[in-house]
Amino acid sequence: MIKDFIKYYAPYKKLFFLDLLAAFLFSACNLVYPMITRDIMNDVVPNKDLRMLMIFGITLVVIFIFKAILNHFMQYWGHVVGVRMQGDMRSYVFTHLQKLPNSYFDNNKTGVTMSRIINDLMEVSELAHHGPEDLFISGVMLIGSFFILLNINVSLTLIIFAILPLLIWFAIAQRKRMNKAFMETRVKTGDVNATLENSIAGMKVTKSFCNEYEELKKFNSSNNVFKVARESAYKVMADYFSGMNLFMDILELIALIAGGYFAYIGKITLGDFTAYLLYVKMFIEPIKKLINFTEQYQSGMTGFERFMEIVNEDTEKEVENPIELKDVKGNINIENISFTYEDKKEVLKGLNLNIEAGKTVALVGPSGGGKTTLCSLIPRFYEFEQGDIKIDGISVKDVSLKSLRKNIGVVQQDVFLFTGTIKDNIICAKPDASDKEIIEAAKKARIHEFIESLPEGYDTYIGERGVKLSGGQKQRISISRIFLKNPPIIILDEATSALDNVTEREIQASLEELSKDRTNLVVAHRLSTIRNADEIVVLTDSGIAERGTHDELISKGGVYSKLHK
Ligand code: ADP
Ligand code: MG
């Protein structure tokens, strides 16, 4: 874990070491003040040496200015190192997210993933620079003041250090409790985020069912769990800090009484006694810092652990040296495919289906029969174990995912539009497309005129996820994407099911245009749209029930003809 963490320092090595150097010099400067105080009390005052006092004064002014500069450097550049590391982690985890299989997104709530990338990494960033800075400052000040204290008086120093093990024991005992409590709050933060994300996305549904109260209850209950978790984490923290502070007060007390006694019996001068007290105080500061550090370390590392959990998720697999699909004709052979979503019941059982290049095969059947599943196996949105799918005779498992997906255009029932302009939403199919190509695609999808009629044309903002468009308009934009992508294989998965009859009929024309000279797999809800398919396959829970052309199946009088009626 630590090793993985340290990796992220690599690009900022120089800056980081400068930061540590600043921390070192800063703490060394801190050690000077008590020493000068001692000399003033021991020498300057008895000898009435005003010149020396002036020199000490000037020295301190210089040191304080130097300290301010160092402090400024640490505050600014230290944080910069943290922020940059956090930025790197974010973009790394985002790249990784893009490679995760669909099953990850099926199984993980968006809000939780977001919380890991935003909140958790914030804590990691804090740890990244404060951690080593604090360790360094504390180390230098602890060791420095220890030796100076020894130099002042050995027996006094040993008394102080005798109670240190007790303090360390207490700190370690509390550490585990803190770790657990903080992990818990991390998890709960993710839950609150997920609930919130879900509720905001579904606000319109909530309104339409007047479900505000129920949603509020749901939110409050996860908010409460979060509150309770945080409260108990703060309880653990309070135990820890109050315990540690008590120890330190005792330490100061011992120093004061023992030192006072030593001065009383004349074993040390008053100057030494004052310096001694100042050093003991100074030496408490780094201990406090170390305690802060353990807390920061806990929360930073739990954050990093959660980050690593995403990073360690398996990505979509590719074979070594995958084949690049080129000049695809579009023959699709589905051979004996069986498929199960993560240990649930078998969705597809030994399915066989051939689609010749340029032909249209329609899949129909009851909902839940596995039509969508089959459609998602071809572009390998899910991994199948048994059977094979070949495109032009090459197994989809042997080709690169990129070239595979470039050759397949999928139109689904629920269109996802990104927040942005219409142009943004079409051009995502081919980022280097010219305006002319975009307009051409929109014309083919028969949405160009509508877009032109908008005040800002292609640059019109369509609201979050396209809320400002009708279902038919959204579907046409998604069809323009496919025209622009221009793949040889098209999969239409109930592309028009969500639309009314009139809109469906209108869109049908653009879909027919899209299917020309391509291989098509069409899942249709309304049978009227697939009459002309070269083959119709009826898929039910128990596999393919029947297949043939429309006329063949009607005359056969089986499932299809019943569905048709
Ligand atoms: P169809 O498109 O024919 O209506 P699907 O392929 O969507 O059927 O679903 C087939 C079965 O697989 C259903 O029982 C459904 O519950 C299940 N299923 C679909 N998608 C997933 C998924 N992402 N994870 C787990 N199970 C799923
Ligand atoms: Mg479906």
Automatic annotation (TrEMBL):
Alphabetic keyword roster: ATP-binding, Membrane, Nucleotide-binding, Transmembrane, Transmembrane helix
A Pfam family per the record: ABC_tran
Keyword Membrane: yes
Molecular-function GO term, any one: ATP binding
TM region(s), chain numbering: 15-33, 53-70, 140-173, 246-264
The keyword Methyltransferase is assigned to this record: no
Membrane-topology descriptor: Multi-pass membrane protein
PANTHER family listed in its UniProt record: ATP-BINDING CASSETTE SUB-FAMILY B MEMBER 10, MITOCHONDRIAL, ATP-DEPENDENT PERMEASE MDL1, MITOCHONDRIAL
Name the UniProt record assigns to this protein: ABC transporter ATP-binding protein
Domain (ABC transmembrane type-1) ranges: 17-299
Residue span(s) of domain ABC transporter: 332-563
Compartments in which it is found: Cell membrane
Coiled-coil residue spans: none
